[in-house]
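FAQ: What does the model actually see?

It sees only this:
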Amino acid sequence: MDFQLNEEQLQLKKSVREFAEREIKPHVMEWDEAGEFPLATIKELGKLGLMGIVFPPEYGGAGMGYVEYVTAIEELSRVDGSVGIIVAAHTSLCSNHIFLAGTEEQKRKYIPKLATGEFIGAWGLTEPSSGSDAGSARMGQRSKCTAERQNCTGFVGNRHNAGAQGLTRRRVRLGNPAECLRHRIRAR
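And it is asked to produce this:
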């Protein structure tokens, strides 16, 4: 198969490459050596529409497809793999799970804030006995509300409640004491 990017995709590739060269490349070693999360840069990517590239405009996204998404991730990762994986995990492992499996209420509540970079999404799956093997996980969690975690969202799971189906998951918004009290999750 002879695959070629169309003109719009080539323009996206060029724009993301220029942004990455100008705004990311000069800071890569500094961020790495300091162990710093490049929050300001990630927020800029949100303003550019890259944090919600695959989501429809009615949810605050850019309304592009997966070729454009992969092209953007490739260009970001070419300069800094960490920034590329931040955007990829945010989009594919957090936001897209809500978009594909969430209720309409959850989509309207979270996707616009995730798509614009107001919220930064994450997804975690690891524990000492199973690593990233979801089938071997035996986890339980506890949510904590701290000032540093304002505007963070995520799913937590508990295999003990899942039965033969595997892991279950719950959405919690960290940083909101009232919501965390309603969705208190105790370690098992």
